[in-house]
Amino acid sequence: MDRSMINNLTKEIDELKYQLEEIEQRELNKSININGLPQLNDEEQVQAIKDVAQELNIEIDNSDICVSAVTLFNIESNTKAPPTIRLSNGYEIPAIGLGTSRAKENDCEQAVKDAIDAGYRHIDSAYSYGNEKEVGNGVRAKIDEGVIEREDMFITTKLWNTFHDPADVPLAFQKSFDNLNLTYIDLYLLHWPMAYGKINKDRSNTPPTDIEDVVIRPFFDNGTYAAAEIDYLDTWRAMEKLMESGKIRSIGISNFNSQQIDRLLSVATIKPVVNQVECHPNFNQHKLIKFCAARNITVTAYSPLGQPNNSDAVSLAINDPKIAEIAAAHNKLPNQVVLRYTYQNGAVVIPKSTHKDRIRSNIDIFDFELSQVEMEFIDGLNTNSRLVAFNHTIRDENYPFGIEF
Predict the structure, then answer these.
(1) Is 232 a catalytic residue?
(2) d(CA 309, CA 296)
(3) Which listed residue (18, 120, 127, 129) is catalytic?
(4) What predicted TM-score, i.e. pTM, was given to this entire model?
(5) Does the pLDDT value for residue 39 go beyond 90?
(6) Is residue 276 within 8 Å of 252, Cβ to Cβ?
């Protein structure tokens, strides 16, 4: 058999491997046709197909191989959905999700589509990201294609700081709900414990009458910002009332420290199921993860790769030569080792990317395990250095980063 023919065939089947990964469980046993391959009337060529399929852990027999329009697969996909973590209220959250911070317009929508095709079933968004509509568009497009159903997806969004007034909470939520347009929201988070004042976008003294009229980041040229004295406990009570609408399955918090969590738990009638915080090997949050676990709160890790595109990223774990060695030992990449580390520490990870190849790479962390020695080495890379310090609010009484954890 011509070697080039085998090589071409191998490439075709490798592409099919990715296509198979995009097939949902309910579409198993759906045949995939390969067009444009040479006539397969040679026993050696048939065996070559079987050999390549075996390397991909795909079982086929002669009945699966036709002579012309070759139907190689009439089988089940080997792709497994990412594992899930059971929340305190019984719902399941996928252990990995797509982060969308700073992902805008078409980039965001396409990233959501690519993520779903790659096997993601968890998308993280926020009103302040300005991309809820794009997230919703991407998810609905895949529903319309038959790739997923709404119930397959876990969608998170967040209440922004300018809407902590209890009277504003239902209005802000409804805006996010309408933006996403996905029937219900799986998880609604209180984005930060600090509250901002409301300033009209036209900078007039007229109070905003609509959520969209509010300046999201009310910062001034002198470095100050418009603060508001609103207790996050009052905001939380308003979020609890939202649960009565049936439009939210779970509520939680983000960027809360241990003292703020205990204060909230002391009055909450509905306890937060998640605390979403910055977490990566250089800021591993061991103490906060343990603290939250003891209170049955799941930690979701944002910036789990450490924001490698930052200009000072040279000190990040993902760039450490030893991480590259660990990755090579597992036939993996450094990003996969870094994400696996935080996952093994007990947190959900939500890496952000708008690049299709990176999105696919980031989810491929569930077929290997870091050893205790490897985990201990990565533990040693912790410097307790935050990338997201929110320093402009450091004088706010509810600033969360003034204590150890």
Answers:
(1) no
(2) 33
(3) 129
(4) 0.80
(5) no
(6) yes
